[in-house]
Specification:
It is a single chain. The protein is 20% helix and 33% strand. With 560 residues, the protein is an alpha/beta fold. It starts with 23 loop residues before the first strand and ends in a 9-residue tail after the last strand. The strands form 3 sheets. Strands 14-15-16-17-18-19-20-21 form an 8-stranded parallel β-barrel, surrounded by 4 helices. It has helices spanning 266-273, 293-302, 317-321, 323-335, 367-374, 379-400, 429-443, 487-497, 513-518, 531-535, 538-545; strands at residues 24-25, 32-51, 56-64, 71-76, 83-103, 110-118, 136-138, 160-161, 168-187, 192-200, 207-212, 219-239, 246-254, 278-283, 308-312, 339-343, 405-408, 449-456, 474-479, 501-507, 522-527, 550-551. The chain folds into 3 domains: 8-118, Sandwich (Jelly Rolls), CATH 2.60.120; 136-254, Jelly Rolls (Sandwich), CATH 2.60.120.260; 266-555, Alpha-Beta Barrel (TIM Barrel), CATH 3.20.20. The protein is globular, with a radius of gyration of 25 Å. α4 (323-335) packs parallel to α6 and α5 crosses α6.
Length: 560
C-alpha cells in the first residue's frame, strides 16, 4: 500500500521484489508513505532501506498490528540516503510503514528496496555486515567510477563493475577470521548468469560454499553452512549481458548475527557502524568506590545511558582498595548491555601500586631506567610484569564472565608528563605497549581484550608512536586543544589508521551531531568524567545523546 506513485512504472510492489533494478517512487510531494503487509504478526527488529537518489531527508519507521494504530520505532530528521540498516528493539507487527516527512530533492520519495527482518532472522537484520568499508581486490574494473570499493560502501547508488569479460571476481578482506554463513549480493542490470561464492583464510586456498549456474540477478541472500573465513570472493563465471559483472552491494554476515536473538563481537559491531554511527560514552574516573558516578549523571540529564562505560585501575589507596568494586561494576555494565573500557592511570614501576599523582603517575624515568623497563629480564621489566600479573587477575575475572574489554593502556603516548609518554620511535613508548600486549595475551592468555592505541592532539606526529599495526585494533585521539574537532585531525587519524577503526578517546567539549556527520568514521566518542558537565550545557549533552547518528546503551545489540 502506498500514498501515491509517480507512475505505474514505479509502483509500490517494486520496492519489495528483491530486484535492485526496480523501485517505488511517490508523487513529488512531502508526507508520503509506503506500507508492507507481512501477512501475519511477527516479532521484528530490523528494516533495511535502499534509497534511490530521491531519498527522504526526514522520515519515520512505524509499525502496526492492525493497519490503524501505529507506533514509531525509528525516526531520522537529517538522513543522507544510500542503503541503511535500521535496528530497533523487537516489536510485534504485521504492517510496517516508511513515512516520508520531508524530501531531500525536488522529486518524490524513491526506494529500490524496502526489507523487513524478524528478531531471530539472518542476512541483513541486526546482523553485522562484515564487508562494510573493508579492503577489496578485483580482477578488473570497467572504469575508476566503478571501483571495487563501491561494492562495500553501503551506498545503493554506487557500484563495482568489471571489464566486459567472463571469469571476473571481487574479493573482500574482512580483516580477520570470522565464522560466516550469509552473503548478500545486490546485482545491477549487468548480473552473473553463473557464479560461485568462495571463502579462504589465507587468500590462497579457496573453498566454494555456494554456486549458481542459472542465476537471474536482482538482490539475493545466500545462506550456507557456517565456515571460518577472512576472504570472501564472488567469482563470476559467465555474464548474463554483453557488459561485465556489476554489484551495487556485496555484503557478508557472521553466523548467528541476525536479529536481536543472535549476538556479535564488540569489534564486529564497531566495524559494522563505522562511517554511519558513533557510540557515545563517558569515563568514570575517581572514586572507584562509585564507579558509575558519571554514567548515572548522564542518565539523569538525558534519560539515556552511555553505550560505553569506562573505568580505571588508578593509584590512590582508596581507589586501589576499591578496584574490585570497579571491576564488578564493569561486569554489571556489560550485563546491562554496555561496551566496557578500562584504562591505566598508574604509578611508574619503580614504586608500589599506591602512590601520588605528582611523582607517581606524572613522573619520568631516566633513559637507563627506560632501557631496564623494555629489556627482557631488566629490573624494571620484571617489576612491570609483576604489576601486569595483578591487573591480569581482574581482567581474567572479566574474561571468565564473558566480558570483552576495550583496553587503552599508555594513553596520550605523546604526552610527556606521564612516565610512559613522550618517547617516540620503536624503542620508546611503542616498545612498552608491545611488551605489555605480548605479556597479557601470550603469557596470561587474555583473549578478551580489544587493544586501543591512543594519542593526544598536542601535535600530529602520531605515527612516530605506532607500536605496529598488528598490536592494536582501534586508533583513538584525545581532543583537548582549543581548535577542537578539525578535519585535519580527522583526516590525519584516517591516514594513520588505514583500514582500521578510529575513535575519539577523550574530550571535554563534546562534538555536535553535525560534526560527527562530517566526520563519520569516529566509531566512539568518550567524554572525560566531570569535565563533561563543566564544558557542556545540559542541552548540548541532550542533543548529542538524542541524535540519530549517535548510539546509546539502549540502542546496542547483544554483544559477546
Amino acid at each position: 500500500m502506498v500514498s501515491s506513485t509517480e507512475s505505474p512504472s514505479y509502483a509500490g510492489q517494486y520496492a519489495v521484489d528483491a530486484n535492485g533494478n526496480t523501485r517505488w517512487s511517490s508523487a513529488y510531494a512531502d508526507n508520503q508513505w509506503i506500507i508492507v503487509d507481512l501477512g501475519a504478526t511477527y516479532s521484528i527488529s530490523s528494516v533495511r532501506l535502499a534509497w534511490e537518489a530521491a531519498y527522504a531527508r526526514q522520515y519515520q519507521i512505524q509499525v502496526s498490528t492492525n493497519n490503524s494504530t501505529w507506533t514509531t520505532v525509528y525516526e531520522n530528521y537529517n538522513a543522507t540516503g544510500g542503503t541503511v540498516t535500521i535496528n530497533f528493539n523487537p516489536v510485534s507487527a504485521r504492517y510496517v510503514k516508511m513515512y516520508g516527512i520531508q524530501r531531500a530533492t525536488q522529486w518524490g520519495f524513491s526506494l529500490w528496496e524496502f526489507e523487513v527482518y524478524p528478531s531471530n532472522g539472518n542476512g541483513g537484520g541486526n546482523g553485522v555486515n562484515l564487508a562494510y568499508n573493508r579492503p577489496v581486490m578485483v580482477s578488473s574494473t570497467e572504469s575508476s567510477s566503478h571501483a571495487g570499493q563501491y561494492a562495500v560502501d553501503a551506498n545503493g547508488n554506487t557500484r563495482w563493475s568489471s571489464a566486459y569479460a567472463d571469469n571476473q571476481w571481487i574479493i573482500v578482506d574482512l580483516g580477520s577470521n570470522y565464522t560466516i554463513s550469509t552473503v548478500r549480493l545486490a546485482w545491477e542490470a549487468a548480473y552473473a548468469r553463473q557464479y560461485q561464492i568462495q571463502v579462504s583464510t589465507n587468500n590462497s586456498t579457496w573453498t566454494t560454499v555456494y554456486e549458481n549456474y542459472n542465476a537471474t540477478g536482482g538482490t539475493v541472500t545466500i545462506n550456507f553452512t557456517p565456515v571460518t573465513a577472512r576472504y570472501v570472493k564472488m567469482y563470476g563465471i559467465q555474464r548474463a549481458t554483453q557488459y561485465g559483472f556489476s554489484l551495487w552491494e556485496f555484503e557478508v554476515y557472521a553466523s548467528g548475527s541476525g536479529g536481536s536473538g543472535g549476538s556479535m563481537s564488540v569489534l564486529q559491531y564497531l566495524n559494522s557502524i563505522s562511517g554511519k554511527q558513533t557510540v557515545v560514552g563517558i569515563h568514570n574516573r575517581e572514586p572507584n568506590s562509585q564507579p558509575a558516578l558519571q554514567t548515572n549523571r548522564v542518565y539523569n540529564i538525558t534519560g539515556r545511558y552511555p553505550a560505553l562505560w569506562s573505568g580505571d585501575f588508578l593509584f590512590s589507596q582508596d581507589d586501589v582498595n576499591n578496584r574490585w568494586t570497579m571491576i564488578y561494576e564493569a561486569k554489571r555494565q556489560w550485563d546491562n548491555g554496555a561496551i566496557v573500557q578500562l584504562m591505566l592511570h598508574v604509578t611508574n614501576p619503580k614504586m608500589g601500586e599506591v602512590g601520588p599523582w605528582e611523582g607517581g603517575v606524572v613522573s619520568r624515568l631516566t633513559d637507563a631506567e627506560w632501557n631496564s623497563l623494555i629489556t627482557d629480564g631488566g629490573t624494571l621489566n620484571t617489576a612491570w610484569k609483576r604489576r601486569l600479573d595483578t591487573y591480569a587477575t581482574y581482567l581474567q575475572y572479566l574474561k571468565d564472565n564473558g566480558v570483552t574489554v576495550l583496553f587503552r593502556p599508555f594513553h596520550e603516548m605523546n604526552q610527556s608528563q606521564f612516565w610512559w609518554g613522550g618517547r617516540p620511535g620503536p624503542n620508546g613508548t611503542a616498545a612498552l605497549y608491545r611488551l605489555t600486549r605480548d605479556y597479557l595475551v601470550n603469557v596470561k592468555g587474555l583473549t578478551n581484550l580489544i587493544w586501543v592505541w591512543n594519542m593526544q592532539d598536542l601535535d600530529l606526529n602520531w605515527s612516530a608512536y605506532n607500536p605496529g599495526n598488528n598490536y592494536w585494533d582501534i586508533f583513538s585521539v584525545d581532543i583537548y586543544n582549543p581548535d577542537g574537532f578539525t578535519m585535519t585531525k580527522y583526516n590525519t587519524a584516517l591516514s594513520v589508521a588505514g583500514n582500521k577503526l578510529i575513535a575519539i578517546g577523550e574530550c571535554a567539549t563534546l562534538p555536535t551531531p553535525q560534526q560527527l556527520q562530517q566526520q563519520p568514521r569516529w566509531v566512539f566518542v568518550m567524554s572525560w568524567a566531570e569535565l563533561t558537565f563543566s564544558y557542556n550545557t545540559n542541552a548540548q549533552i541532550q542533543a548529542l545523546y538524542n541524535a540519530s547518528n549517535v548510539i546509546t546503551r539502549d540502542e546496542l545489540p547483544r554483544l559477546y
